[in-house]
């Protein structure tokens, strides 16, 4: 009986060492890029969440640019759940690389792509914990939505997990 107890304790201990199931929306081995010609001022304004890794999540986000290196972002986050965001998001590097303290899961935010006229944008994180497509209008133009989805595919995202 004593041996059985020790075996059960050992099995329980090993189960605690098992990796957590992946919640990533993308292949973490895939490279990820950000928008090289990102214009912070043009990105500012109101966006509609038209697709995300949170099924059924939609809403509006306002990205108010302060003119010196940060946005005040408010609205529906649609990053890890349908929670709201009301936070300062700082530009951390070239090409639309951003960071929030707690909003959007507190992870680096990459603006992977934005079209030339800033009508649609693809945002995600290197870990793949979340991704979303923002559009200035809802519904998004089908051709622009298709292009944004192609950017997700190029960056290793599972397109079946990025839904309207």
The share of residues in helices is 10-25%
Query: DSSP helix count?
Result: 3
The N- to C-terminal Cα distance equals 55 Å
What is the SS-derived class?
Answer: alpha+beta
For this structure, what is the CATH class?
Mainly Beta
Main β sheet profile: 8 strands, antiparallel, barrel
Radius of gyration: 19 Å
Biggest sheet, spatial arrangement of strands: 1-2-3-4-5-6-7-8
CATH topology term: Lipocalin
Beta-sheet strand percentage? 25-35%
Shape: globular
**Which parts are unreliable, with pLDDT below 50 for 5 consecutive residues or more?**
1-21
Q: What's the architecture, going by CATH?
A: Beta Barrel
Number of domains: 1
Total strand segments: 8
Average pLDDT: 87
Report on the architecture of this protein.
This is Lipocalin. InterPro entries: Calycin. The structure is a single chain. With 164 residues, this protein is of the alpha+beta class. The protein has one domain (2-161): Beta Barrel (Lipocalin), CATH 2.40.128. The chain has 3 helices and 8 strands, in the order H-H-E-E-E-E-E-E-E-E-H. It has helices at residues 2-17, 40-43, 142-154, and strands at 45-52, 59-65, 70-76, 84-93, 97-100, 108-114, 120-124, 131-135. Strands 1-2-3-4-5-6-7-8 form an 8-stranded antiparallel beta barrel. Strand 4 and strand 5 form a beta hairpin. The longest helix is centred in the first third of the chain and has 16 residues, at 2-17. The model is unreliable at 1-21 (pLDDT under 50).
